[in-house]
Amino acid sequence: MLTVHAAPLVLPVGAAGIAGGAVAVDGDRIVALGPYDAVLAAHPAARVRQWPGVLTPGLRQRDGVHLLTRLYHPDPREADELGEQPLTGADFERLGGRMDEPRRAGSVRRGLQRMLRHGTTHVAGGFAEPAVRTAVSRAGLTVVPPAGTGSGGPGLDPFAGGRDLAGTAHGPLAVGGRADLAVFDVPDEAALIAAGAVTCVATVLGGRLVHRRR
User: Fold this and answer.
1) Cα within 13 Å of Cα(80), Cβ side
2) What are 68-96's pLDDT values in tens digits?
3) The pTM is what?
C-alpha cells in the first residue's frame, strides 16, 4: 500500500529541510518527497501517517559487530537476575558456559530490535558468525562496510561521540531510493543531536514500519 509519512520537519540530508514535509512510499521505494500538501495531492489515495518531530533517513550503526557479538542483551524474563541493560565487559564474560546457541541467538535478535528502536536501518559488518549474519538478514537491515567508531566507544545510539546527522544517516532521502526512514520526537536537528536516537518514535525499513513508539 502506498503510504505518506508526514512530519513537522523533514531532513533529507544533502538538501534543505522541509517544514511541513512528507515522504511517499510505495513498496520499498520512495516515490515522492516534498511539502505535505504537494505530496498528498500527487497521491490522494495514500494512507497517511502523521508523526511528531523530525523525519530523517534511517541511521547507520558503526558498532554493529561489537553490539551483537560482545554484548548480551537480556531477555525481559531475566530482568530480576541480569537487569534490563546490555551486559558487556566482565559481566558479559561471566556468562561464559551459560551462553549456548539458542541463548546467543536470542541476544542477537534483541540487540537488533534495540537498534531498530534507535532509528538504525544500516549496520556496519562484517559478521563472521553465520547465525549473526542470518539474524541481520532476517531483520532486513542493510550491511555496510566497517567504519571508525566514535570517541565515546561502542553504543546503541548512532549519534554518540558527537556525530551529526549527515555523518550518521545512511544517505540522503531521494525519490527512487529505498524507503529507510527514522522519526524522532524533537523539534530540529540540533535537538536531535543533543538528545540522541533514544528519541526515536518510528523506524521504517524498506517501506515496512518495524518500530513504533506511539
Assistant:
1) 1
2) 887 777 777 777 777 777 777 777 776 76
3) 0.88
